[in-house]
UniProtKB/TrEMBL annotation:
The chain crosses the membrane at residues 54-80, 92-110, 122-153, 165-184, 190-214, 221-240, 272-290, 355-372, 384-402, 414-436, 456-474. This is DUF3360 family protein. Signal peptide: none annotated. Pfam families: DUF3360 (PF11840). It comes from the Bacteria. The lineage of its organism: Bacteria, Pseudomonadati, Thermodesulfobacteriota, Desulfobacteria, Desulfobacterales. It comes from Desulfobacter latus. InterPro entries: DUF3360 (IPR021794). Keywords: Membrane, Transmembrane, Transmembrane helix.
Length: 484
């Protein structure tokens, strides 16, 4: 008799009508999939594409437009590049992400890898990179090289496994709370600047009510498109200014145009000095990956049913894809710095969907948005953007973190992590709390006793030192001037 694990996805699949609820159908789908690692995975043979996949795809596309724009604009400000360059490079990055990487890797070659998105925490460091004499291409190549090293040695999954429950919960709570208050503050500032002060209060108030109702009826996966649409309509009706400004078109595709001396970035190709200048920034970028990837994987674990282990995100493979995407994207001329795509993974987990189905839709949406141009304007409009990030990323992160902190021991680790994150930043908070937690100085002392000395001190200690040195070199430790 053939066991369940030996049957194919098609053999085990059932119609949605055979289940009492839609949730039961989606849970069943997650438990019968088993993807080919670095093989050919095909829709409807190895996985399905459902209506629920549209939501994370929309959220990912909105997030991509916003984050890449912020990243490229930060570079452009430092290197005196025009707004036209920013629009052109963002359009280019949408096509690189959608056509070249999202569908190829996450949908077909290895559906256990999350999409390669944008490394948001690196945006504030871009001015320091420029002052240090860094070059965007040199930075991208070194991030790809260091990331591949971490992925090949399976350092990412090892660090994830060494992070205790309390530290994980504290990290998610901090990221969720800070992001949530930040988005509300930015929406309020925008409304005040536009002379429509009441828009912020009304939009956030209605968003809270709609989100609470969706949570009550267990339809939170609808929060992003529904809340964003309502926010946009309310803001427009209340007099907020909006207009389409990015016409349809295609960007330049010649890498040498982008890395020319009087075209594109107008910087030419990097020299050895440029590579030396960006070494600490590249190390820090890759060091920041682990807590970021950890949060996305944990969110899947909390949302998926028991038996869905085969569809969980593989941290090491995701790091490998992000590294390859970073290297190739930078060489082609893009200004993105890659990381795990949070605005895709978190909504996908809420919707109880695996990675590949939504990845196909995300790739299509990114290409369409890049070519048409106008959808990019809508995604970047403040009410739509802020509400999408609030209900799709930061509020779910906060909820998940609170769900993980279930006892006094976990709350102690979580509190220490939150304190350390607030003191410096999340990468420092995660590294410090993980070291203290594994040594048994905080949190569950019984767990610490089961760890080897490598797991207690050597690996967490080395990670902590790497983080401290990298942060110190680039001036990110409070009160300590950086060398670069």
């Amino acid at each position: 008799m053939v066991g369940k694990n030996e049957k194919s996805y098609v053999e085990q699949r059932k119609k949605a009508s055979e289940f009492r609820t839609r949730a039961e159908y989606l849970d069943h789908e997650l438990t019968i999939m088993k993807f080919r690692r670095w093989g050919i995975n095909l829709p409807f043979r190895d996985y399905s594409i459902e209506i629920e996949d549209v939501v994370p795809a929309l959220a990912a596309t909105i997030g991509k437009v916003v984050m890449v724009t912020a990243m490229v604009a930060a570079f452009a400000d430092q290197y005196a590049l025009s707004p036209a360059f920013v629009a052109e490079n963002v359009r280019y990055e949408m096509l690189i992400a959608g056509a070249l990487f999202v569908m190829l890797f996450s949908a077909f070659l290895n559906p256990n890898t999350n999409l390669a998105g944008t490394h948001g925490p690196m945006i504030p460091l871009i001015p320091i990179v420029a002052v240090a004499g860094g070059h965007p291409l040199a930075l991208g190549i070194l991030i790809g090289l260091f990331g591949l090293t971490l992925a090949i040695t399976k350092g990412g999954s090892k660090l994830m496994n060494l992070t205790g429950i309390g530290v994980r919960g504290g990290l998610l709570i901090y990221l969720g709370a800070v992001g949530l208050t930040g988005q509300i503050g930015k929406l309020g500032k925008w409304a005040t600047g536009g002379g429509v002060d009441a828009v912020s209060f009304v939009v956030i108030g209605v968003t809270v009510l709609v989100y609470a109702y969706l949570a009550r009826i267990q339809k939170r996966w609808l929060a992003i498109p529904l809340c964003s649409a309502i926010a946009g309509i309310l803001a427009f009706m209340m007099g907020a200014d909006f207009s389409f400004s990015t016409p349809p078109g295609l960007p330049h595709f010649d890498p040498m145009w982008w890395w020319g001396t009087d075209t594109g970035w107008k910087m030419g190709l990097p020299n050895m000095g440029h590579f030396i200048a960006v070494i600490p920034f590249a190390i820090l970028a890759v060091a920041m990956w682990s807590p970021d990837y950890l949060g996305h994987r944990v969110f899947q674990e909390l949302s998926y049913p028991e038996g869905a282990e085969n569809v969980l995100m593989d941290v090491d493979d995701t790091m490998m894809v992000a590294s390859v995407r970073q290297t190739i994207g930078s060489c082609l001329g893009g200004g993105n710095i890659a990381s795990s795509w949070g605005t895709y993974m978190i909504p996908a987990a809420i919707a109880k969907r695996p990675i590949p189905g939504g990845a196909i839709l995300t790739g299509i949406f990114c290409v369409v948005a890049g070519i048409l141009g106008y959808p990019m304007d809508l995604a970047m409009w403040e009410p739509v953007l802020r509400v999408a990030l609030i209900v799709g990323v930061f509020l779910p992160l906060l909820e998940a973190g609170m769900q993980m902190v279930s006892n006094h021991k976990d709350s102690q680790s979580a509190g220490t992590c939150i304190f350390a994150c607030a003191f410096v930043n999340p990468v420092f908070g995660w590294a410090a709390a993980m070291l203290l937690d594994n040594l048994g100085l905080i949190g569950d002392t019984k767990r610490a006793k089961t760890l080897t000395w490598n797991e207690k001190l050597v690996i967490p200690g080395a990670m902590f030192v790497v983080c401290i040195v990298s942060l110190g070199l680039v001036g990110q430790l409070p009160g300590i001037p950086g060398i670069f």
